[in-house]
Specification:
The protein is about 40% helix and about 15% strand. The chain is an alpha+beta fold. Strands 4-5-6-7 form a four-stranded antiparallel β-sheet, with helices on one face. The chain has a three-stranded parallel β-sheet with strand order 1-2-3, with helices on both faces. A three-stranded antiparallel β-sheet has the order 8-10-9. About 30% of the residues are buried. It contains eight helices and ten strands. It has two domains: about 110 residues, Rossmann fold (3-Layer(aba) Sandwich); about 100 residues, Arc Repressor Mutant, subunit A (Orthogonal Bundle). InterPro entries: CheY-like_superfamily, OmpR/PhoB-type_DNA-bd, Sig_transdc_resp-reg_C-effctor, Sig_transdc_resp-reg_receiver, WalR-like, WH-like_DNA-bd_sf. This is Transcriptional regulator. Its main location: cytoplasm.
């Protein structure tokens, strides 16, 4: 829990502890990054307004080394703010003022989504080995190099790759990747697809893997050129 207001930290962590979670607290971005170096953490609740650096910057630094889920607390409500947060790797938002019960519910939902599903194979390879997914390790490789994906990006890729050529609507992807309790709109899926293409596609503007089905949704083409 990263917030410079002690009262907010106390209330939120109290609710999380009642749910059985072990909690750690930081009052600044630098302190939070130090904690993440020392501790095994499953999720970060991150306020955007911190005294030493922005929450966005903390999130960027987390994403350089980890796909750790990040739940952002923010008073910013514009669509651009949400898109910016998603583009740097936030998994969800809670707007201030908020209910601690809502935060606890979002934490449960995010952790539930990021757990391993029943898997079809330990290794999935596409494009002659150009793209490889190691499902047990939750690792993705492009041309032999590891790709740093957020939990939602990984879940999206795995959902599509396990069903090659099947068209998923945006609503179906919201349900499978973001969960029933997601309160955003389908444009969130488009942003995740855009981010994922930037990371796994040889030419993101001419995707070989995640293909748009106009008027319907997205499908995984398996890297087969038309």
């Amino acid at each position: 829990m990263v917030d410079d207001e002690a009262k907010i930290r106390d209330v939120v962590t109290s609710y999380l502890q009642k749910d059985g979670y072990r909690t750690l607290e930081s009052a600044s971005g630098s302190e939070a990054l130090d904690v993440l170096e020392r501790e095994a953490v499953d999720l970060v609740i991150l306020d955007l307004m911190l005294p030493d650096m922005s929450g966005e910057e903390v999130c960027r630094r987390i994403r350089l080394r980890s796909s750790l889920p990040v739940l952002m607390l923010t008073a910013k409500v514009s669509e651009n703010d949400r898109v910016t947060g998603l583009s740097i790797g936030a998994d969800d938002y809670v707007l201030k003022p908020f209910s601690p019960r809502e935060v606890a519910a979002r934490v449960r939902a995010i952790l539930r989504r990021t757990q391993d599903d029943a898997l079809l194979a330990d290794r999935m390879a596409f494009g002659g080995g150009e793209l490889v997914i190691l499902t047990l390790k939750r690792e993705v490789y492009k041309d032999g190099d590891p790709v740093a994906l957020t939990p939602n990006e990984y879940k999206l890729l795995l959902t599509l790759a396990r069903h090659p050529e099947r068209c998923f609507t945006r609503d179906e992807l919201i349900e499978k990747v973001l969960g029933f309790d997601f309160e955003g709109d389908e444009r969130t899926v488009d942003q995740h697809v855009k981010n994922l293409r930037q990371k796994i596609e040889p030419v993101p503007k001419a995707p070989r893997y995640i293909v748009t089905v106009y008027g319907a949704g997205y499908r995984f083409a398996g890297g087969v050129l038309p």
